[in-house]
Design brief:
The chain has about 350 residues and is of the alpha/beta class. It contains 13 helices and twelve strands. The chain has two domains: about 5-205, Rossmann fold; about 205-340, Rossmann fold. Helix 2 packs across helix 3.
């Protein structure tokens, strides 16, 4: 019987979407009676890096290669992350360390996902098979993925195909975050039974996020939240179309060293309109039922936008940065969230059934 579940995802540093999707999955599992442990897998360090990193993380008045900045941001988010898991491992920098953690933390199962855990170009070469749960004996724990993402619509790593196919055959069940991921699993990796499920952030009630947020501010004017990773020019076009009635609030990667996760979530809850090229920014616009425009982020992976919005009947809210001609129309068109709620409820049931059936 599964009691303790390890969650393996990309390293949680300053990526708000990455943090909250892991927290949401943990919360859903805990609410169904399972315990959760976060597996903190990070890339290996060379001897020189192992000596230099502690110095660069704490030495003041420098930020060589962004190390100190990332460490300060990580520490800011660490208490929030820890509060939503029953346990965490130490930092694990090898497959052997992962295998030892399975025994030390008495893990019955490991869920790999969500986020772009199967986007091989994002992974250090030494960690690729770990994210396909290649560590530990075959019968050491139950293996499954939840909403794992390849990031793109095709499998572009034939050199890994034999090994990844072998490892996926050991999974009790496979689920992916995009419709194209189902095709990749079927056509390239030998798992024709892969299922398409919701991102973990959409598994839980909006009340969970409202509980994380602080109190609502008193506002006398409307605000448009611009949460942009790229595309500053198109943001300006949208703001011009919205007009002076809206006050702009801008969030970007540069704010990550000052912003907490609750404050990030609150920005979406309190917005009157959202402009974003972020996948999880799009999701939180939907969770809080805010009118939004999403800009397809081709470089970071557009497939996740198109797949999600097609499921919810919201494909018309997505524009391409190089074809922004529909901005005026979208600004003027409200979103009917009634059918969106119904679609989400149906998809949530299917996603929950996948987890419950696999972990039973």
């Amino acid at each position: 019987m599964v009691k303790i579940i390890g969650i393996l995802t990309l390293s949680l540093h300053t990526n708000f979407g990455g943090i909250i999707q892991a927290v949401a999955l943990s919360h859903w599992l805990q609410s169904r009676g399972w315990e959760t442990t976060l597996l903190k897998r990070r890339r290996p360090l060379s001897g020189v890096q192992a000596l230099a990193l502690p110095v660069l993380e704490y030495l003041p008045f420098q930020n060589i290669k962004g190390v100190r900045h990332r460490e300060k941001s990580r520490k800011r988010h660490e208490p929030f992350i820890a509060s939503h898991f029953d346990g965490q491992t130490a930092v694990l920098r090898s497959s052997k360390a992962l295998a030892r953690a399975v025994d030390k933390h008495k893990l019955d199962a490991i869920v790999v996902g969500s986020d772009q855990v199967w986007q091989v170009k994002y992974l250090d070469r030494s960690t690729v098979t770990d994210f396909f749960l290649g560590f530990g004996a075959e019968d050491a724990y139950l293996r499954l993925s939840y909403a794992a993402s390849f990031g793109v619509g095709t499998w572009n790593f034939p050199e890994y195909t034999p090994e990844v196919s072998r490892l996926l055959a050991r999974f009790k069940a496979v689920s992916v975050r995009e419709a194209s991921g189902v095709n990749i699993c079927r056509d390239d990796l030998g798992r024709p039974d892969a299922q398409h499920v919701l991102d973990p952030t959409l598994l839980v009630s909006p009340d969970f996020y409202s509980g994380i947020c602080g109190s609502k501010p008193t506002k006398s004017d409307k605000n448009v939240l611009c949460y942009m990773l790229d595309h500053p020019t198109i943001r300006s076009q949208i703001l011009a179309e919205l007009g002076p009635a809206y006050r702009e609030e801008t969030l970007s990667l540069e704010h990550s060293d000052r912003l907490t996760v609750p404050a990030w979530i609150s920005s979406f809850r309190d917005a009157d309109f959202v402009v974003t090229d972020s996948y999880h920014g799009t999701i939180f616009s939907i969770i809080f039922e805010r009118p939004f425009i999403s800009i397809a982020n081709e470089e970071r992976g557009a497939e996740r936008f198109t797949s999600l919005l097609a499921l919810l009947g919201l494909s018309d809210r997505l524009i391409r940065a190089d074809a922004p001609g529909r901005i005026a129309e979208l600004v003027a068109t409200p979103i009917d969230f009634v059918p969106v709620r119904a679609a989400l409820a149906r998809l949530r049931r299917l996603s929950e059934d996948y987890l419950k059936d696999t972990l039973a």
